[in-house]
Amino acid sequence: MPLPDGLQAAIIDLDGTLIDTVGDFEAALGAMLRDMHLPTIQRDFIQHTVGKGTEHLIRSTVAQVDAKAARFDEAHERYMHHYLGLNGQFAKVYPGVQEGLQAMKERGLRLACVTNKPTALAEPLLERKGLRGYFEVVFGGDAFPHKKPHPEPLLNTCAALGTTPAQTLMVGDSSNDAQAARAAGCPVVLMSYGYNHGQPVHGLDVDAVYDRLDAIVWCD
Questions:
Q1: Catalytic member of 13, 15, 24, 173
Q2: Average pLDDT of the chain?
Q3: How far is residue 157's CA from residue 164's CA, in Å, rounded to a whole number?
Q4: Would residue 177 show up in a list of annotated catalytic residues for this protein?
């Protein structure tokens, strides 16, 4: 399904859309739990939990292993310590991502990356994977008072780019991205291969679902 005419920019999610980062999450959470002498968790749990920000992931993990909620601060410190040290080591850029980003640039679209991952983790990850240069701005989950699915990150990004929401495509992998886009007034497409809390994205309120970023059909 071709996208609307008049698009001037695209806001693109990171985890599950540009880069498969479950390996990094698994390694950092595993090291955190070992430091705290807590049981390990399964990879499936991580895949179903990521997407709502680091704090949500850590709180959910602490609850999953039946630890006390009061240990969150300790868990957060240990997690960030390990993640900063391994960021990108076990992550892989999805097939078609670089080609898709290049196609967007060649169409004259201005690009922004908006993620619920902390900015201190998002920026170096994009650099290490050779993707940072495609984006004019990168906003992490700590850039604004609210995270996706709240529309605020998208609205503020449109303002930073100087575009209207109707002119700005949201590209993501989950219901968080779809809900944020609809609330902000942005057209939205999702990638089928992402996380989305373990649920398929087909059937969500979006303009289209694609299997690769370079498969997006543009309206000429």
A1: 13
A2: 95
A3: 10
A4: no
